[in-house]
Amino acid sequence: MKVLIVFDHPYGAAASGNVPHQRSYCAALLASVMRGLAAKGHEIDLIDLHQDRFNPVMSMEELASWRQKKSEDPLVINYQQRLMAADHIIFLFPIWWESMPALTKGFLDKVFAKGIVYEEIKPGRPFKCLLPKITGVTLLTVMNTPDFVYRWIFGNPVTKILFRGTFRKMGIRKNLRWYNYTGMSDRSLEERVRYLEKTEQRFARLQ
């Protein structure tokens, strides 16, 4: 299975080591996910949005192209082609202000283009997904907000955006999974390592 990973953290994918002020638990999770996928024999395609210097801002010219079902940005075109080839998509990012960082939101705005990634069959109705191979989407998030607060008081904003407002609207309703890692900065090294090991094992079972 070909798995496309969309990774969003300013420190980049290389920041998985336990080096103060140069470390990211998101990057450590990414390394665990990739080890698990590799152990299962999956093909991994990693998009590191910060390393790619992806610009999330939609310009006037880009919006005009978007409305004509095309893109002038070679990076956006490249991302769209990689989406088309993927069987499974994994998003991995920290939660800031209860939602996704800007680069992930820009990825949805610019890459998920009408007429390329989805089609609007009828106004007000669900969209038609144009990704030919997608069988599932997994989301991994890291946040400081307690899990019960995020779920029961804030109402799971990120899953409403990414799952309900994006993929389910496109017709992908099955195999949508969310794994949330809360308060990791306050946990012991042993606890953080256990979560990483569990994550690696989980993705070694991905089908």
UniProtKB/TrEMBL annotation:
Gene Ontology CC terms, in alphabetical order: cytosol
Pfam families referenced in this protein's UniProt entry, alphabetically: Flavodoxin_2 (PF02525)
Coiled-coil ranges per UniProt: none
SUPFAM superfamilies per record: Flavoproteins
InterPro entries in UniProt: Flavodoxin_fold, Flavoprotein-like_sf, NAD(P)H_dehydrogenase_qn
This protein's UniProt keywords: Oxidoreductase
GO molecular function list: NAD(P)H dehydrogenase (quinone) activity
Flavodoxin-like fold domain sequence ranges: 1-185
Gene3D superfamilies: 3.40.50.360
Family membership: Belongs to the NAD(P)H dehydrogenase (quinone) family.
Identification of the protein by name: NAD(P)H dehydrogenase
Organism name: Paenibacillus borealis
Taxon lineage: Bacteria, Bacillati, Bacillota, Bacilli, Bacillales
